[in-house]
Amino acid sequence: MAATSRQIVTPKSRYTAAVRWLALDVGAKRVGVALSDSEERVVTPQMAIPFGSPQELAQRVAKLVQSWNVEAVLVGVPTTRSGQSRGEARVRQVVAVLTQLLPVPVTTWDERGTTQEAEALLAESGVPARKRREKLDALAAALLLEAFLALRRERTGGNGVGG
Which of 55, 57, 103, 152 is 20 to 30 Å from 97 at the Cα level? Predict the structure, then answer.
């Protein structure tokens, strides 16, 4: 799905210059994590971490923010293709806790189709089905972050955010 068809759910980030982003694809059991470089040009899937509670997740994310020098966090909001929300209450709880705990801004983004796109990419790449689960959530978070950053670049003239 093209980045331009998605909408930023929360107000625009206060950042006009490029920053290092951490993206979260929050699922019922696991949370995919991806990271951008500080120039917002390269996004790398990192890991999937177990989802226990919003508070436990926020503590883990706070440690990642500190150790990876993250300047902003992006959280995917689960929405179906018809616009109906799935798991939105869980994500709202996560966002509320992250916003209180983290010293960096937290932004939400429509994650529509990222898991399905990640599954298709893994299958096309020949990753065996039993190994896909290990990579799926982090790749979905990376796709989420790539789409978000592509729109940020588009809105700033395509030469990089702030560039």
Answer: 152
